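REQUEST ID: PR-0412
SUBMITTED BY: lab tech R.K.
PRIORITY: routine
TASK: structure prediction, single protein chain
INPUT:
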Amino acid sequence: MAHRWTRLFALLLALVVAGVGCRSEPEPITGAPEEPVAAVKALAGALRDGDLRRYAELSLPPELYAQQQALWRRDVSAAQVDPEEAERWRTMMAELTAPDAEEALWAKAQPRLQALQQQAGPRWTMGVTMMSGFLTAAIAANPTLSETERAHAKGLLDAVKTWAGDHSTFTNEARARKAIATAVETARSLDLPNLEDAGKLEFEPVLDKAGIAFRGAKSMATAYGIDIDAALGQVQAEVIALDGPQARVRVRYPLLGQTVTFEQPMVQIDGGWYRQDAVEALQASLAEAQTEDAARAAEASALTEAVPAPAAAP
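STATUS: complete
OUTPUT:
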């Protein structure tokens, strides 16, 4: 289940984590319809509000959104929770929701911050450089990323590297205490002490829970100088390619002192404009589920045919 949540967050946050493109940018199309731009800005607005249910609804046409909910129910009913993962979740949530959670967590965090302070200087810079190199290699070797996505991820990594280079960002005690308080408040609002409970939720309640976690994550990021809401509130978008029901929208927003730029493909379905990547990902998942169901049905049929019929009574 935790892996499923990870994939869900990855899909919902795709608009936020795109990086900086490095190739020459195409000019916007004069007179292009405003609907794709408005759709992208609505998605950014949903993320700014931390409303992941609305973000999901805006990403897919109503018919596909209903199929997404049905697919969630199908997958969750068949999912098995890893016992070790479930135990780690219970331990973490118990720690975060304990009556004295903030003070107990701070007592653990303070010595670690002091240890980090001792690593300031060349050792810190070397560590950031090594980690950046490792992530750069991982991005280049990831077969699931397109060339554009690799450029985006590399651009974001460059911005984060500059931000992470200042060790005081991480060793500042006031920032850490604020982040801990936010984590505790978020865990209590989430009200999900057991990972198994997530499997009992329908798709939209899961999105509501995810929204609580997302808003908490944004607040923690703000404590460390990353104001995601301010970035999403300054989103600019323009159509740069248009071919019938398909459009490519260039999106810009400021983050970590840089301008993040990426291109969002949009597709028109029944008069509305939606994220093409979300539509295609769901269609692929539906096709995969259909194939799995057909294989199970064929296997069950083969087993039935293999069982000999009972002998007739004399």
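NOTES: Residues 1-23 have pLDDT under 50 and may be disordered.
REVIEWED BY: pending
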